[in-house]
Design a protein that fits this description.
With about 375 residues, the chain is of the alpha/beta class.
Length: about 375
């Protein structure tokens, strides 16, 4: 386990022991932990391998579904443990096929995930924290502030539950599944649990979603970017940028005051990339704030020399946020400046706008009664 004292002191974290209640949750355990659990309850280790595959490969979350086990073993396991604790509290279906989920956790907290289908692939956007401590001005999740970190099981459980809602048990997805850690929270401030979750999600004996289809998005926790680059199981990296100067970024994303652009870009320059891999820089288009031609030229200069591509994200407006989205024409003009200067730039198509599409809207509205 990589320890970074500077980052771990950024926010007071709750331990797994503090979050535990009577029954042990099995989602979130790796195979070694599951074998240890079976040893402790007096069962053979091969049963742990069977259960591991049942949970992560076949998405069987009820012991009654695991027919490889005898009735006596299923009863014993039910008395000592639960496969998964979180439940779908509410689900919203968009006209464009997007599904947005509000999960109720064991302690009553709420998080959200999103299923975004396309013709040949689908993306699951998942959360890493309840709320977020970073106070980005354009993000509704920031208004929730940080409640706590998610456990490994609560992170992985989002993927299992969403896939189980879309597909039947044991049914393989009919398209490529991508995972993006771009939901509630700052993933690199829940480093150990997030990296453990990535290992589980990508394990070939389980969900087998390759790390080339997993993207972690960070607002720029520089020491943890270096740590992530040393991980054997490493996702693709995305940087939430939304500002090409320290002055602008200090205002929109206060974390920049601690880790300014020079330090952030140095960490990106040194981040190990696979052949043809690029770091994605996410840039939210805020009307009259981040969308001028000058901003575009500054962005090109800032990212020169990096293996980079840019995702231009039309802002999802909300009554609680003091920003408007740039017009489509302005976004196109901004993109053209980047492309003409050799910087690959793509426009993210808004999805699920009829079901509270802005990150944090469901949980924020639910927790505040909006």
């Amino acid at each position: 386990m990589i320890v970074n004292k500077e980052v771990s002191s950024f926010v007071q974290l709750k331990s797994d022991k503090e979050l535990s209640i009577q029954q042990k949750e099995l989602v979130g355990m790796d195979l070694a932990a599951m074998r240890q659990f079976f040893k402790e309850i007096g069962e053979q280790p091969f049963r742990a391998t069977q259960l591991y595959r049942a949970i992560y490969k076949h998405r069987q979350t009820s012991y009654e579904e695991i027919t490889e086990f005898s009735k006596d073993l299923r009863t014993k396991l039910s008395s000592l443990s639960v496969v998964i604790k979180q439940q779908i509290d509410r689900k919203f279906n968009s006209e464009d096929g997007t599904r947005r989920y509000l999960f109720k956790l064991f302690d009553g907290r709420e998080i959200e995930s999103v299923w975004i289908p396309e013709t040949e692939r689908a993306t699951i956007c998942i959360s890493s924290q309840v709320g977020c401590p970073l106070a980005c001005e354009f993000c509704l999740t920031a208004q929730l502030k940080l409640k706590r970190n998610l456990s490994v099981g609560e992170i992985v459980g989002q993927v299992i539950t969403v896939l189980s809602d879309v597909y039947s048990i044991k049914q393989s997805p009919d398209r490529q599944i991508n995972i993006v850690m771009m939901g509630m929270g700052e993933p690199l401030l829940n480093y150990d649990n997030v990296t453990a979750a990535i290992r589980l999600i990508s394990d070939n004996e389980g969900m087998a979603i390759s790390t080339k289809h997993i993207t972690l998005s960070t607002a720029g926790i520089v020491p943890r970017i270096y740590d992530l680059g040393k991980e054997e199981t490493r996702p693709k990296l995305a940087i939430s940028l939304t500002g090409a100067t320290d002055e602008l970024r200090d205002r929109l994303m206060p974390i920049n005051r601690r880790y300014p652009l020079k330090e952030l870009l140095k960490a990106c320059q040194e981040f190990p990339l696979k052949p043809r891999e690029k770091i994605t820089f996410e840039y939210v288009m805020l009307k009259d704030v981040t969308d001028s031609d000058v901003d575009a030229r500054r962005l090109v200069k800032l990212l020169s020399g990096l293996q980079a591509k840019v995702n231009l994200i039309p802002h999802n407006p909300a009554e609680e946020l003091p920003f408007e989205s740039s017009s489509h024409e302005r976004v196109l003009a901004f993109q053209q400046i980047l492309v003409d200067r050799g910087l690959p730039a793509f426009i993210r198509r808004p999805r699920g706008q009829d079901i509270f599409a802005a990150c944090g809207q469901l949980a924020a509205k639910s927790s505040t009664g909006m």
